[in-house]
Amino acid sequence: MLWYIVKRILYVIPVMLGVLIIVFALKSIMPGDPVDMILPTTATAEEREAKREELGLNDPIIVQFVDYVKGIVTELDFGTSYKTGQPVSEELMQRFPITFILALGSVLLGTLLAIPLGILSAVKQYTWIDSLILVISMLAVSIPSFWLALMFLSLFSVELGWLPSIYDASLASWIMPVIVIALSAMSGLTRITRSSMLEVIRSDYIRMAQAKGQTEEKIITRHALRNAMIPILAAVGNSLGTQLGGALVIETIFGMPGIGKYITDAISQRNFPAVQGGVILLAFVFTFVNLVVDLSYTFVDPRLKGTIVTGTKRKKKAAAA
Amino acid sequence: MSKIETDAMRRINKKRKKRKGSASPGKDAWRRLTRNKTAVLGMVIIGILLLVAIFADLIAPYSYQEQNYSAIALGPCLEHPFGTDNMGRDIFSRCVYGARWSLPIGLLCVVAGMALGGTIGVIAGYCGGKVDNIIMRIMDVFQAIPAILMAIAVVAVLGNGIPQLVAAMSIAFMPNVARTCRAAIFTVKDSDYVESSKAIGVSEGKIIIRHLVPNAIGVIVINAVGMVGAAILMVSTLSYIGVGIVPPTPEWGAILSAGKEYLRSGVHMVLFPGLMIMFTVISFNLFGDGLRDALDPKLK
Amino acid sequence: MKNKLQQNISNKKLVEIKNLIVHYETDDGVVEAVNNVSFDIEKGEVLGLVGETGAGKTTIALSIMNLLPKPPAHVISGEIYLEGQDLMKKSKKELQKIRGKKISMVFQDPMTALNPVQTVGAQIAEVIQLHNSSMAPSEIKEHAVKMLETVGIPGTRYNDYPHQFSGGMKQRVVIAIALACEPELIIADEPTTALDVTIQAQVLELMKQLQKKFGTAMLLITHDFGVVADICNKCAVIYAGEIVEKGRVEHIFDHPMHPYTIGLFDSLPTMDKDVERLKPIKGAVADPTQLPPYCSFYDRCDYCTEECKRQNPALKEVEPGHFVKCIHEVRGKGDEDHGAD
User: Fold this and answer.
1) Where's the ABC transporter domain (chain C) (predicted)?
2) DSSP type of residue C44
């Protein structure tokens, strides 16, 4: 058990290294000279060369990569923003809380809505309640969230003037972004909760609980939900990843100074250190969340306590093959 | 008693008549699909959208780039059912032509994504062992980057354009597709019927053709159809933030993106292209769900 | 008043099932799972319900518990009385008080019958707590431990999870749960089918002992005549959702009278006969979605005549307590054999 936790935590390292390689490779393929982004067009050839040397752009790509990784690992150095000349890590840290709260808060809200809805839908299968919930979640999964955000803006800000259209750090300006992302997270999670519950409800131990004379409510909360939890947890973890990406668009629409807006702005400015830093940070958060989710499985399902969760499953399958 | 029995008999006979004609599994699946009302609705909308895309020239009252300076930013009216945009272009016509871009691009992304991710997944699933392990660890890395972020980053590097967009989308979809296809192959490979085929000495090639392919194809098709909606959504999102299809191409996301500046003067510039996206995505999702239920009734 | 009087008369009968008809309505047609089944179980009696897979045994069991999955199941008609009260007319709440307390159930597959994320102790305690609301938690636990020990599992394993037990041990836990509130009736749905043969014997022996000890009535569903012979007093043979023969175990074993029952016995190996080959029943089980309006065993019957196609015979009493659903007075071979010894 302990060994599994340690192993699972250590597995974050190669994954993050892989992410660094991908991001770095993308940067290397990118056309155009970064020096052009930093120096004014009037700069002389010598000045350019000096800058290239300073940024280490003349070194072999491997050396550049090693330097970059070393910088991140030893002093959290993601380079300097071409645009502002500030360290990217500082700019990221200022913006990170907004994105994190937005994505995490929305996914939590979405989960809190989705689990009861999914359960209700499963318990009332084949009734109008089930159909209604399915229709709502189908709508929510099919609506482009940026469009929904714009519609909210035009209704609640432009028409009714109830909520601020631009983020101003007030609580009210969080309402729309959070709801838009929460709806998007909710839709998928509702469907997963429903199907997972449907599967569990048909199992023998639920019938056994009924045969004991247990009430329906307690059968759902005590027996069914915990057994249905693993796919739901996995989906919550995944949803957080999707919504970290979704926050990117929503932040731009509501002018929230988060990582997402930072990255989109940086892309249009071809400010690559900023893009790199942002992508790596979001990937790290996502990886970390999945780590937590994976570890939480062992608390949900005692069968997994003795064994290794995903690792053995994979190995078993590989061995069978 | 006897009345109950005759009642029951009548009900049975009624059901029996319905049963007639169920023969092959393919026909069976088709029967289940067509009996599913929402799936049929999805298919009908998809059919209409395809017709709109094909006959866009006939349906659209104006050209998608025709500018009319006497009719700038008009709300919906008789002449312009969806209104006009800031350059006096008819939004209805742009949306109609948009079907020619959004649908094929969405489908293309799915095909490319399935080709890339599917191949990787099938190789991993089929080879198993070390190959599988290495491939899946690499997929873990790709999965660590949220899909849309991946797509944006790739487009940012490759530049704007449809081939670049398709490439970016297939890379973004790759890890999930690979995982699903690998699981599909594994399920079939581990199944008792494959084991028993091996036991009676059926050749490897025959097992692949007779068992692996037909059984895995079902899962792969279900996933592919389910992905179309997501792909169209993602493409429109990329276009919206300006890294996908760029104006003046009348892709729905791009139309929407152009209209967002004018939210205060007219919601219609954003409303209608968004509705188009929504209906398209819903219809593909409905069809995809129906197809899944029809092909794999156990999953329902 | 009068009604009550009648009930008092039939008070010896613990469970009485009358004309039960249950259908499953699926996309592919109506499955006639249970067709006009009637039987009763007296206090402390063990009734064996014998039949092939798909004959409708489990459906009958779930009907008594009122736990049929609806949809697709529909109870077309029928009454089920427990101590004179119609269970079909009970509210959900009332049924919850009966389940686990008056009637409990032992399921076929112990591997799936226990909740994998709860300790076995908690699962036994749950049923005790449900029906003894005044009991203190410590008492409940004490009782649960006692139940574990009753079925031969050390009480120290109270906090273990189901996956830490073997199949036979799990079935013991299931039995402990079923017995925990000392119910009047236990419905055991093929309790030994999923177990290894050696374990089967142990579990069966345990059930037999506990049944005697607690004096519980039992409805034992099985497809194994050996099990019936071992612990049942009465036996009902079910084919295609209908009871084709019922009676005391001696009736059924000594002189089976329905061609299907006879066929079942002929297909069993016996010690006292030297037979080269066992004799299987020809054909396959009748399709429950397309049952004929006449005797459903007609196509497989060795004794069928034209007469059989004209009607679906009712159960008739051929001797006191022995009912057969056949128009012919067939006498099973078992008659001479068993009569001799």
Assistant:
1) 15-265
2) T
Spatial separation of the C-alpha atoms in residues C13 and C80, rounded to whole Å: 12
Residue C332 has what pLDDT? 58
First to last CA, chain A: 26
What is the reported pLDDT for A107?
Answer: 92
A89, two tokens: 């890590």
Looking at residues C204-224, what average pLDDT do you find?
83
pLDDT greater at residue C9 or residue A285: A285
Tokens 């396959």 locate to C284
CB pairs under 8 A between A and C: 76
- Report ipTM (2 d.p.): 0.82
CA-nearest of C22, C63, C39, C17 to C235 is C39
Of B9, B31, B5, which is closest to residue B20 (Cα–Cα)?
B31
Name the residue with tokens 């949803």. A239
CA C323 to chain CA mean position, Å: 18
| pTM exceeding 0.95 | no
Question: What pLDDT is recorded for position C333?
Answer: 54
Q: Which residue has the tokens 């088709």?
A: B30
Length of chain C in terms of residues written: 341
- Subunits with 3+ C-beta pairs closer than 8 A to B: A, C
**What is the distance in angstroms between the Cα of C68 and the nearest Cα belonging to chain B?**
19
Backbone angles phi, psi at C313, to 5 degrees: -65, 155
B123 Cβ neighbours under 8 A, 6+ residues apart? B131, B135
Q: Is the pLDDT of residue C21 over 60?
A: yes
Residue of chain C whose Cα is closest to the Cα of B12: C30
Provide the CATH number for the domain formed by B100-299 in this structure. Answer: 1.10.3720.10
Q: Are B176 and B151 in contact (CB under 8 A)?
A: no
Segments making up each domain of chain B, as ranges: 100-299
Q: What is the pLDDT of residues B112-140, one digit of tens each?
A: 999 899 889 888 888 888 888 899 899 98
Is the previous residue joined to C72 through a cis bond, with omega within 30 degrees of 0? Answer: yes
With CA atoms as reference, report the closest residue to A217 among A119, A109, A112. Answer: A119
Give the Cα separation of B64 and B69 in Å (integer).
14
Tokens matching residue B175: 């890890």
- Please give the structure tokens belonging to residue C203: 């579990």
- Angle of helix B162-190 relative to helix A310-320, nearest 10 degrees? 70
Q: Do C28 and B19 touch (CB under 8 A)?
A: yes
Cα(B138)–Cα(A15) distance, integer angstroms? 8
**Mean per-residue pLDDT, B221-238:** 88
Q: Say whether pLDDT at A111 is over 90.
A: yes
d(CA A252, CA A260): 7
Decide: helix, strand or coil at residue C80. strand
Q: Do C29 and B15 make contact, defined as CB atoms within 8 angstroms?
A: yes
Helical H segments across B87-161, by residue range: 91-127, 129-143, 147-158
Of all residues in chain A, the one with the smallest CA distance to C174 is A208
d(CA A209, CA A225) in angstroms, rounded, equals 13
Distant-in-sequence, close-in-space partners of C274: CB < 8 Å, separation ≥ 6: none
Per-residue pLDDT at A116 = 92
